Structures are given as structure tokens and as C-alpha cells.
Amino acid sequence: MGQAGTRLGVDIGGTFTDVVLERGGAWFSTKVLTTYGAPEAAIIDGMHQVCAKAGISPEEIGQIIHGTTLATNALIERRGAKTALITTEGFRDVIEMRTESRFEQYDLNLTLPAPLLPRNRRYVVRERLDARGDVLVPLARADVEALVDEIGSAGYESVAVGLLHSYVNDAHERLIAEVLADRLPDILVSLSSEVSPQMREYERFNTTIANAYIKPLMASYLGRLRARLADEGADCPVFLMHSGGGIMSLESAAEFPVRLVESGPAGGAIFAADIAARHGVEKALSFDMGGTTAKICLIKSQTPKTARVFEVARTYRFKKGSGMPISIPVIDMVEIGAGGGSLAHVDGMNQIRVGPESAGSEPGPACYGRGGDKPAVTDADLVLGKLDPDNFAGGSIQLHPAQSAQALEAVIGTKLDMDATEAAFGLAEVVDENMANAARVHAVENGEDLADYTMIAFGGAAPLHAARLCEKLGVGRLLV
Fold first, then answer.
1. Cβ–Cβ contacts within 10 Å for residue 279, how many?
2. Do domains 3-74+218-263 and 279-480 have the same CATH topology?
3. Are residues 330 and 303 in contact, defined by beta-carbon separation less than 8 angstroms?
4. Which of 53, 189, 304, 448 could pair with 269 in a Cys bridge, judged by C-beta atoms 3.0 to 4.6 Å apart?
5. DSSP per residue, 434-448
6. What letter does residue 371 receive in the DSSP assignment?
7. Which residues, listed in sequence order, are joined to residue 299 by a DSSP beta bridge?
């Protein structure tokens, strides 16, 4: 059993996995490239590195706290399991009809995000409760058994159950869960009355489907992580950061993985609130820019702003209503695809565009020398002299400025008649304007004037861009 004073913190990002060991007031940290196929491999590698630095063995670790972007990425990239929905008869299309609100009033070619499940994966049962939870149409067990047999023959990995008014009375959902457990014991089940027991069926169904959709992936990852850690000697409690900024047990996380959406960024906002408290800052703008995304959060009186619903994967930039609503307690922040690995190209109008595609860790920006040939934000920062090629990630990764210059010239320079430095400046300016724009919109939506705020910048790339962002936003103080 590990020692109580020795804790390991792990954050898996789109590019890097950061591992920090805290022992008796001393800190030991390392950065390793994220291993997409098996994210736990990077954690084990990082754990051994920090344990070696601290001169201890993994057996001495008493607690592990882990934040991850895996759940968010699986939803954005639609890499989930084959999932079915069971809902009340007549409500099969709720997730497709949405709430009738148009986020672009006058756009005749409005494209709404496709629902997570196509219509042929949505099934109905004959039952009905009223808003007080009284039974209007009882649910017959025989009907459920027939439906479950049909679902069984279709080869689903995961089932979401969302019935009308089940947040008041969950009896019908429990009956369906009972039959599923009885007849299809290997299928993972998510009940809306457990995942998100609150009114408004569109958000509730959507959240439950999202939970079911990523559950097999996350349950398998968390199971492998626990087994690998135990094999390496770190057989201690593992907690995960959830979207509301608190922590949850590994078992809860495997059961309700949708609560891990925004898990990594939430940790950053809590960190920024702590920094704000230590420096007596009443109004802080937390700016966290990593390898794949930039996160901006308003912190007043040392408390991050929270919300009850937020959106994943918006199809229109910054437009409220254009994403998938997930109703769980969450730290309210705006997140855009702008990070060190975000790739640049020149569009049809000869304008430089940056993101949301990222070079990630495989192959990474051109300067990593791992086969990347497109210019990323990190390449621009290197060419502009903001990064030291010999001391990147504490000297553990050597950067190659010549490869950055080559990528910048090939993709931007040749099209716009610029040398590498000018192309790098253009790229940086575009990404900074994208982030400033997101911060402005977020401030306006929350009725805040950013002039009285202090920016707190952290994450791999934020300090390199924060000063320019402050200039654009009229923010007078910056804490790095």
C-alpha cells in the first residue's frame, strides 16, 4: 500500500501527457508524448520517469488523480460504440428534432449537427408516465423482452434508456435495465434517470446517449489503466477529474464517462482559481492553451463560473445551439481548436486559416522531426524565437527550426509570397485573433467587460501567446 503523502497527478492532452509526483512538499514532473492507441502506456512511462527522479518505487504512491480529454475527443470525432436507444413510443425523433431554436436566424442552408444515433438505432416501447410520475400507460414486461431480443440479434455494444418523465419515477427504466441484464448480460446500459435525472428530454436523452456511446471505450481504457498500474506496483486508489472540477472514483467514471467530458480543462480552471486566490485577484480570465485546444474561463471571486448544460462539437464557430448539449454540472468555459499543434493552410480566398485540425503527437508539428510536413502554431513560435530548440519540454525533445521554416514556406510562403518569418508572424496573428474573438464572445454572452480582468496564462502554449491576447482584449495585467 502506498504512502498517504505521495500523490501522482496525470493529465492526458491531445499532444502531451503530463505526469507530476508530489512527495513531502517536493514536486517532480515530466512530459511524454500522448500514445493514442493505448493512452495508459504514456502514463506508465511518465510514472517511472518521475519515480526515478524522486528516487522512489511506484509502490510508494498513495493516490493518483487523472484528468483526460479522451471522452471529449471520442464524442467530437464520433469514435464511439455501436449504441441503441430505447425510448417512449412517439418520442423516437426527439434527438433529431432538437429544440426548434435556430442559432442562425436567416441562414437558409443551416446545417444542424447529425444526432449521435441514426433513426434505425432508436427503438420504442409502449409506456407513459405523466409529469408527476404517475403511470398513464403501464409497461408490459413481455414487450420489453421482445424488444431486448431484437436488440440482442443486432449486435449492439451499449444501450441508452431514456423514457419520458423518468427523472420523477424511474420504475419503467429500471424494468428495462432488469430485462437487459437478464437477457444480454454483456451489454453496457445507461439509464437517463441515473446519468442526468432532470427535466427537458432532448438534453437528457442526448446526455444519456453520449454516455452510452463512449462507455465501452472509457470502461475498457480505465480497466486497462488500473491493471497496468497494479502490474507496475502502483495499486492505489485512482480518482478522475470530472467536468464540474471535483474528483470521482474510477468505478463511477467507468459507469458515467459523460461526466469526464471537459475533465482536463476543468482541472486547469480549478488551478487558475487557486492562483487567483493566492494573488488576491478578484476577476481573472483563465487562458489555458495546450497542444490541441485553447480554453478560456471567467473566474470571479476565486470561483470558476459553472453551468448546468454545455455543448460539445459546435458545427458553427462560437454559435450557441450548434453543438450537442450535454446536461451535467460543468465549469463554464469556451474551448476552441487552437493549440500548439493546430495546423495552418491558405484557403481559397488567400487567407491564412489555423485549426481545428491538429498534428497531435503523431506526427506532431514539423519541428518535432517526426514526419510532420504542415506548419503548426509551435513551428511559428519556434521561427519567431519564442521557443528554445535545445530546451523544449525541459530539454527532453529536440526541435528542428529548419524543418519549421521549410513547412511554413511550402504551405504559406509560396502561396502568399512571404519568407518563413513573415509566414510565422501571419500564422501567429491569425491564431491569436481566433482566441481573442472567442474570449470576446464569451465575455459578451456573460455580460462582462474584460478591461477589469487579470489574465492567468498556463498550459504548454498559452504564455507564448498571452501578451498579444491581452493587447487585443484590452486586458491590463497578465500572470504567467
1. 13
2. yes
3. no
4. 304
5. HHHHHHHHHHHHTT-
6. S
7. 284, 304
**Look-up: residue for cell 459546435?**
314
254-283 confidence digits (pLDDT tens)? 999 999 988 888 889 999 999 999 999 999
User: Residues 262, 310: contact at Cβ < 8 Å?
Assistant: yes
Where in the chain are the domains? 3-74+218-263, 83-213, 279-480
**What are the tens digits of pLDDT across the range 387-446?**
999 988 778 889 999 999 999 999 999 999 999 999 999 999 999 999 999 999 889 988
Q: Helix 462-473 crosses helix 420-445 at what angle (to 10 degrees)?
A: 60
pTM for the model stands at: 0.86
Amino acid 76 reads I
CA distance 471 to 386: 17
CB-CB neighbours of 294 under 10 Å:
30
Identify the CATH class of 279-480.
alpha beta
Please name the fold of domain 3-74+218-263.
Answer: Nucleotidyltransferase; domain 5 (3.30.420)
CA–CA gap between residue 480 and residue 478 (Å, rounded)? 6
Q: What average pLDDT is seen over the chain?
A: 92
Q: Tell how strand 83-88 and strand 158-162 pair up.
A: parallel
Say how far apart CA 460 and CA 340 lie, in whole Å: 8
Q: For residue 329, what is its C-alpha cell?
A: 454540472
